[in-house]
Design goal:
By secondary structure, the protein is mostly beta strands. The chain is about 10% helix and about 30% strand. The protein has helices spanning about 15-40, 185-190; strands spanning about 80-85, 90-95, 115-120, 130-135, 155-160, 165-180, 195-210, 215-230.
């Protein structure tokens, strides 16, 4: 498997709303690709503290929030659905990989209510960092991760898996990471070795109508804190 070319700017596939959907998440995932396949990379301008840009602000880890202890990782299983109760999100999950040009494919433009999981990486609940992406909006309406930046530490993210289990994650960090302050290793690498973690990623910051790109990405970090059987199991 080859790494996406970090010098390549992904192209929108149409001049309309689709261009607005694709650019932010693909930009983030190109940088994910640099970390996944390139190992240690050089941090850019100081790491994880993102700017407060556009319509969203970095939440980080406010003091006084008591978080539960991590649960031991689960056996690997593929995700089928993701639920974020505080946001009213209940969305199907589709595996995404690399496009023919070497970039990582976001969910289809016609599936703004679907969440993409990077299928070439860690399965949610297993040790390591599992990566999920979703669109923030279309030119007509909000999309699945429109309110992602409003999550706070302590919120729950539940992933229904194809072995009949539900892996429950607890949010411990929310950041808005701009292009000039981005560290792929810091954003997507494990916060604590040996834990099962996930990241939820969408566009953030200001939208430039000329380049049709967002200035930042919202990155939510969570870690495994529980597991139970799904009933009835998904088909």
């Amino acid at each position: 498997m080859t790494s996406p070319d970090p010098g390549t700017t992904p192209r929108p596939r149409s001049p309309g709303g689709a261009g607005r959907l694709v650019m932010g998440v693909v930009w983030a995932l190109l940088l994910v690709g640099m970390w996944l396949w390139g190992g240690d990379i050089t941090d850019v301008r100081g790491g994880l503290s993102g700017p407060t840009t556009g319509d969203v602000a970095a939440v980080g880890r406010p003091g006084g929030v008591e978080l539960p202890p991590p649960r031991a990782p689960l056996a690997a299983a593929r995700p089928q659905r993701i639920d974020v109760p505080t946001l009213g999100v209940r969305a199907p999950v589709v595996a995404r990989g690399l496009d023919t040009d070497g970039s990582i494919a976001p969910p289809a433009y016609t599936a703004a209510g679907t969440v993409g999981w990077y299928g070439g990486g860690v399965r949610p609940g297993a040790a390591g960092t599992s990566l999920f992406v979703g669109h923030v909006d279309t030119e007509r309406e909000p999309a699945v991760f429109y309110h992602l930046s409003t999550l706070r530490p302590g919120a729950k993210v539940r992933v229904t898996r194809d072995d009949g289990s539900v892996a429950e994650f607890t949010v411990d960090d929310v950041q808005v990471l701009g292009r000039d302050d981005f560290s792929a290793k810091a954003a997507y690498g494990p916060r604590e070795r040996g834990r099962a973690e996930l990241r939820l990623i969408t566009c953030g910051g200001a939208f430039d109508r000329v380049s049709r790109t967002y200035s930042a990405n919202v990155v939510v970090s969570a870690y495994l804190t529980g597991a139970e059987k799904s009933w009835p199991p998904l088909a």
